[in-house]
Please model this.
Amino acid sequence: MQLIYKTLIGVCLGMVALLANAQEAVIRKNMAERIPQLKNIDEVNKTAIPGIFEIRVNGTDIFYTDAQANYLIQGALIDTKLRRNITEERIDKLTAIKFDALPFKDAFTIVRGNGKRKLVIFEDPNCGYCKRFERDLQSVDNVTIHMFLYPILGADSSEKSRAIWCAKDQAKAWQDWMVRDIQPTPAAASCDAAALTRNVEIGRVHKITGTPMLLFVDGNRVPGAIDAKQVEKLLADAKG
Model:
């Protein structure tokens, strides 16, 4: 009898899987025909709402549709009972950055004091908020800062980032410009600045849309300029 139950359960699970695959195929086919921009769907998932499916494209873009892909819903899915933004939580998970998985070879390092605490920052040299933030950050001691140059504000941002990246002392060139307004020396034509392109690509994947962006060892991500007291608190919290 037990064997029969197990067999029936296996058959039922197999049928559910087949139905789910068939449903996904319908959504993919109809969406590709009707909205060619969404022809390459990364993933199709059921939502908590019967008949409504999540579709994920371009890595981290989330949309919703019905079983036949007759309708496309763009926007946030809110759980009113639990007061949760389901869409936001999903995107946060998809765009999360693992501190230790970052390509630190594409950043330069600033060490202050014993350097025991760690912090990653993405910044554009033409960002006014970043300059204000950098000047306040001077008071934060005993920290190792991994600085990822992130030129997204225009051609001049790329030129300045290249000059700083190619400088003999990257940390000094950065501090000279951001804190003391000393223009960086233009980079030599032979300098390899491919790291800057890779940084921008990482930012695109992880939805870094502005600077500064701070990342702490516990995975906490903070967009925008904060003051030194807030940095100190977040460093302490990250250490546990």
The chain is about 40% helix and 20% strand.
